[in-house]
Write a structure and sequence with these properties.
With about 350 residues, the protein is mainly alpha-helical. The chain folds into 3 domains: about 120 residues, Orthogonal Bundle (Cytochrome Bc1 Complex, Chain D, domain 2); about 80 residues, Orthogonal Bundle (Cytochrome Bc1 Complex, Chain D, domain 2), CATH 1.10.760.10; about 120 residues, Oxidized Rhodanese, domain 1. Helix 2 crosses helix 5 and helix 6 crosses helix 10. Bound molecules: heme C (HEC) (2 copies). The site of one heme C has 28 residues, from helix 2 and helix 4. It comes from Lutimonas vermicola. InterPro entries: Cyt_c-like_dom (IPR009056), Cyt_c-like_dom_sf (IPR036909), Cytochrome_c_Oxidase_Subunit (IPR050597), Rhodanese-like_dom (IPR001763), Rhodanese-like_dom_sf (IPR036873). Pfam families: Cytochrome_CBB3 (PF13442), Rhodanese (PF00581). Keywords: Heme, Iron, Metal-binding, Signal.
């Protein structure tokens, strides 16, 4: 089977499941119940387990890493269910938003993802706004200039995302229609830093911006992954016969990445924990790192880890939230030499330190 037919089938399965769910929802809605009580409870548990870390306990956003609000009227009334489900299933490559779908190495089944997406919409409680599928025409050069003046401070000069979502993101643009982008610019996102621009900019200027953002599309589509096997406990310690490294921690917790890179280079003994979503570990990780995602349960977190003076170093892309959570659990269990890589995984890559699995998407 060629790569493209495989990925077409992968995306195809996703849409068949979507149709199945939409049919179910339509049926349930005629009975005034968007989800069964059990499905809603399960969705809420999954939300707390997998999402609250960054999107906040009540979906308000910004709990870590500038994750957007998942309750604003503007977002929840214009983001179609398949866009919402695919954002969860396939994530946003090169941002802290990981893919959660099991086929990508993530922890959730398609059914759980759709149920969560439906629950998020239901919880937000906003009416659906049907937006046009028509392309929006505008002047790219004017759009690019306006973008730098009005938007780059938060979204980055290349729309790569800084304190606001990456708009040049391939997975975002694969699903966001022109009308969806324009609506967000005109109306902003309630109770977030994204203000409404409809009184500040003319219709033509908003169209130019929309056309410019659209022009950053890359033709991305979801691809199935070959998943590598997880390491076994006997392989957890990197350089088991090496010397212990010496680390100087900030706030008794954060170790500068250059000290960790040096320890690896000098074949020091240590354990590296990748605390991101398991799909991210499958994509790329620091050599020797083992996947201990932030949503692991307290009774499983320490399994197979050496409880002696071996250094245990956690990292994530948030850059602290997921690692802190895992390190707190280990410290509570009496593990002493533990720390978090201060700068996080993206800075590690940008600094040119070693990773396995190539550049993340
Ligand atoms: C002060 C910071 C700031 C500025 C300036 C800003 N934005 Fe935003 N923008 C945000 C934040 C934060 C979000 C995410 C809000 C949320 O949902 O929590 C966002 C969201 C968006 C979204 C929706 C993205 C999605 O994933 O649905 C679009 C589109 C957008 N901004 C476009 C623009 C454009 C175009 C400009 C310039 C005219 C602009 N923004 C200026 C902060 C900003
Ligand atoms: C490690 C932090 C983190 C976790 C955990 C996380 N997200 Fe995100 N999420 C983000 C960030 C950051 C973004 C914005 C990415 C970007 O720049 O486009 C995002 C974007 C999104 C978006 C797109 C919203 C928009 O405005 O376009 C959705 C939907 C979403 N996340 C849902 C979820 C759900 C549901 C979960 C749990 C299954 C989850 N996220 C877990 C960090 C996280």
């Amino acid at each position: 089977m060629t790569r493209s037919t495989k990925s077409a089938r992968f995306a195809g399965q996703f849409y068949i499941l979507l149709l199945f769910f939409l049919a179910n929802v339509a049926q349930a809605q005629t009975r005034n119940a968007p989800l069964t009580k059990i499905d809603a409870q399960r969705a809420e548990q999954n939300y707390q387990k997998y999402c609250a870390l960054c999107h906040g306990a009540d979906r308000e956003g910004n709990a870590a890493d500038y994750a957007p609000s998942l309750k604003s009227r503007s977002l929840m009334s214009t983001m179609p269910l398949n866009f919402l489900a695919s954002s969860i299933g396939f994530g946003r490559p090169n941002t802290a938003m990981a893919p959660y779908l099991a086929d990508t190495g993530g922890p959730m089944s398609m059914k759980d993802i759709f149920t969560l997406a439906i629950w998020l919409k239901y919880k937000a409680g906003h009416e659906t706004i049907e937006l046009s599928m028509e392309p929006i025409e505008g002047d790219l050069n004017t759009g690019a200039t306006l973008f730098v003046q009005k938007c780059s401070e938060c979204h980055g000069s290349k729309a790569e995302g800084v304190t606001a979502p990456a708009l040049a993101n391939p997975a975002f643009l694969a699903f966001a229609t022109d009308a969806y982008i324009k609506y967000a610019i005109e109306n902003g996102r309630e109770e977030t830093e994204m203000k409404a621009f409809k009184t500040q900019l003319s219709q033509q200027q908003i169209n130019d911006l929309t056309a410019y953002i659209r022009s950053l599309t890359s033709g991305w589509s979801p691809e199935p992954k070959e998943l590598s096997p997880y390491p076994e406990p006997k392989d957890y310690v990197t350089n088991p016969t090496g010397k212990n490294p010496t680390f100087t921690l900030k706030q008794e917790r954060y170790v500068p990445m250059e000290q960790v890179a040096k320890a690896i280079q000098e074949n020091n003994k240590l354990v590296l924990l990748d605390t991101r979503t398991s799909s991210e570990w499958h994509n790329a990780h620091i050599p020797g790192a083992i996947p201990i995602p932030y949503y692991i349960s307290e009774d499983k977190v320490a399994a197979g880890l050496p409880k002696d003076d071996t250094w245990i170093i956690a990292y994530c892309s948030c850059p602290h939230a997921a690692s802190d959570k895992v390190i707190n659990m280990l410290r509570k269990k009496g593990f002493k030499n533990t720390a978090v890589i201060d700068e996080g995984f993206f800075n590690w890559i940008n600094a040119g330190y070693p990773i396995i699995g190539g550049q993340p998407e």
